[in-house]
Amino acid sequence: MKDNRRKNAEEYEKKVYDFISQLVVDGEMPGATKHAKVYLHKTYYDQYNVSINPDISIEVFRTKESERPSLYILIECKWSDHHAVNSGDYTEFCGNIKRLNETAVKGYMVTNTGFPEPAIIRSKGLNNGPSTGVGLIVFNDSGADWIVERNLRNFNSLQTKMAILKGDAASTTPVLFVDNQFCNFIDHLISLDVPIKEVFTPTVPWLSNDEISKIAENIGRNFLPISIYRLQTILKFIYPSATIVYKQMPTGVYGSFDFNEDILYISKDIEQDIYRTNFTIAHEIGHLVLHKQIVQKYYNSTTGSQIFGLADAVIAKLEIQANKFASSLLMPKQLFLYETARRITQLGIRFPLFKDNQKVNIQDCNSVCAYLRSFFQVSRAVSNYSADAPM
């Protein structure tokens, strides 16, 4: 019996490895670039030279020529015939992430059964508690479901996700292994020319990060220099009848464009935070530019009442694309590079600027990013994201 469990666990690790590898190839793995490398059972060492042995790891490189990874993604697999993940295993994995380096290492825990509710709450940072930052994935024959988004869209979505991640409900995203690669069940039917009702499977156009950035920058270059009302002016250009109204919104929802009223609602929680407001407006502009037909057809608003249900995978793609658009609109690449170089020169920092685990480099990066946040009027997350991008 013990040998069978070990065999099943090993087979499960291999299936997860194949699945994750395919996500990286397809550009669907959060945080991984096309230059990422995936490993099975690679050993790493902390600052005390004590080994850490994740089941799967991803080393993310900024460019093809990069010699050192800019990010490590560790993945722990837990297979069981019926038990949910042990809370102690979850805590131990979180500790391993911290032992390597919290800023340069991310983690995901994968199971075929489910997670204890305290682990889900800790990962999401619910109930006003801090998030561990560890993503949770339920991966089994029924499908794959993730908790990786920063905010769940609404209460019903939260309840559905909790049930799936606890192992109390089946996945809504079945996964098949066809022609040596993983794919979505609906996508596979479409590839076989099986007629699918349009209401059931809206298509999100696939766009690379470079394509999204180009679209955003082509719009944004007509609205320079950077000013306090730049985003509002761009919104009026894109959607002339739009108005902006602040109102109380559900927890975790900061913006929503109502197509019935042509109103961009922004949460009162960020009314005094110009940086968060800027990103929210830029994000909603991203939806209007990239997804207007989809969102208008399937939703009353960009985050409001559903007319027809969209799969979580579709929603995730919409959000990822809108976030990328917002970053590029807020921080145009050429202006970003110019201001970064100018600030580095002012501070007397030697080129190039490295973002790694060395204290002096971390301090230099923080100094440059603080200036960029002020110049572009963006949050820490946006400036750090752009600083991580290849230059």
Major sheet, described briefly? 6 strands, mixed
Quick check: average pLDDT? 79
Task: Name the poorly predicted regions.
Answer: 147-156, 304-309
Class derived from helix and strand content: alpha/beta
The CATH class of the largest domain: Alpha Beta
Please give the count of helices. 12
Number of extended strands:
13
> Which architecture of the largest domain per CATH?
3-Layer(aba) Sandwich
Whole-angstrom Rg: 22 Å
CATH fold-level name of the largest domain: Trna Endonuclease, Chain: A, domain 1
Shape: globular
Return the string of H and E elements: HEEEEEHEHEEHEEHHHEEEHHHHH
Q: Key features?
A:
single chain; 391 residues; alpha/beta; Trna Endonuclease, Chain: A, domain 1; Arc Repressor Mutant, subunit A; 3 domains
Short structural summary:
This protein is an alpha/beta fold and 391 residues long. Helices cover 44% and strands 16% of the residues.
Description:
There is one protein chain. With 391 residues, this protein is an alpha/beta fold. The protein folds into 3 domains: 2-191, Trna Endonuclease, Chain: A, domain 1, CATH 3.40.1350.10; 209-330, Arc Repressor Mutant, subunit A; 333-388, no CATH class. 44% of the residues lie in helices and 16% in strands. The chain contains 12 helices and 13 strands. The strands form 4 sheets. A 6-stranded mixed sheet has the order 1-4-5-6-7-8, sandwiched between helices. α6 (209-220) crosses α9, α8 crosses α9 and α11 crosses α12 (380-388). The longest helix is centred in the last third of the chain and has 25 residues, at 274-298. It is globular. 32% of the residues are buried.
